[in-house]
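Below: protein 1.
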Amino acid sequence: MSTVSLHDAHQLKVWEKVEIVIGEGDQAGHYLARIQDFLNGGIVVTEPEFLHGHSLLTENSAVTVVVTREDAVYQFSSAIKRVLSKAKQQYLLNPPRHIERVQRRLFVRVELTKKMSWARIVPVAEWQSLDDRSRWTQTSTVDISGGGVLFRANDLMEAQTRLLLKVSTLSEIGLPETVAAITMRGFTRKNEYYCGAAFILADQVRRYFSTDELRSLPAEITAFDINAQNRLVSHIFQLQVSLRRKGLL
């Protein structure tokens, strides 16, 4: 974890999305807001919108603010309060003393054992029915990142194999559970099979699937877009923070 020096908040941008996190681990509450303005007393944000979690956001709460950008994920400690300005309610975040650069977007993985299942997508001409072509195999994840997942397989999969994945982690954070993926590598370790697969984003599906295939595949695969991926990246970031605090990373 490296530190990016910022003077107050001038390098943050108006209308930039921020995720506000209160609490830690599985009990943390996650909220989404946008930066509206910068004042001497802090950062003005839109009313925080609840995303997922269990901890409620209350006035003067100590929070972690997460900013996801193309190059990395950043975070800083703050506190939130509500104020009345010209008869209008505003939400203010304390400005950061410094912002920490936490990870390169997509590429940092966290070890995570979660239930998942996978199914090969066979050519459309071979489909007899949805159930016939989707022979689901139950397994578990080994690690996960914003870009994909490593899981235990029952054979050695070839690269560029198209899959449907049901990953419990996604549904736990309010994302569609089923995503499309493409295998990147298969390997064996201590006589066990493993497969690494990359998620296929909504704007990439037509690169991998024909129109007829897309009509027959679960519609939710087109819901895993860049915003959904950013939510997953932020979730992984919070897992890393929690594990570091516990001395496990």
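Below: protein 2.
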Amino acid sequence: MDVNDWLDDQGAPEADWTRVVLQRAMSGQLGDGGEGVLLDMLALTQPHACRPHLCTPGMRGPSDRSCCADLEVSVADEEVDVIEEALPEIAAAMHADPRWADGVPVWNDDGALVRHSDPGSRRKRCVFAESTPDGLRCVLHRLELQTDREPGELKPLPCRLFPLALVAMGDGSVLVTAIHKKTARDLASRPARVFPCLSKDAPPLYESERDVIESVLGAEVYDAIVVAANA
């Protein structure tokens, strides 16, 4: 799904992002991504590494949380349509999961899938998250790889981006930011400290998420982030 279409569909998070942009600019932490793209370098340079074994319910610490188990995701209408069309294929891929034992779930009036029995730790994870010995994995992402679909053809944009986030500013520009201790509240997220992927001893977020940034925003934006990070 096109990023601009997604932003038009979802709208900007309800927070004073003008304040955030001014703070970054005054502290020298606002980068220029070109063509109306602003870069929150404070968030983009924080340590990040995907650690599914540390954030999976039943395997994680008592205070740890994860994107696939503890966050609500806003999905655009176009993304819902694509997922709904692929539900039989998804159900076949999730056949071993008790939540899919009775076949294909249905959408309720709130735009969420009605799940079947969800016992124990499975209660705290996305309906599309499958349990593996190494932690949770996204079945939508797996199907994209196995069926030669384009990246993001099934997986919703917020899930692809996490912990990155896009904010549509009032002047038409877009701020590329991420969940960080300084932005979590503005993004209506849990605190950054509860996500194991944002802990220490990891490369900068922009490096670990290079493929996603280039795929969603373009190689030019990634190159601009590298320039800003090394300025």
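The mean pLDDT is 87.
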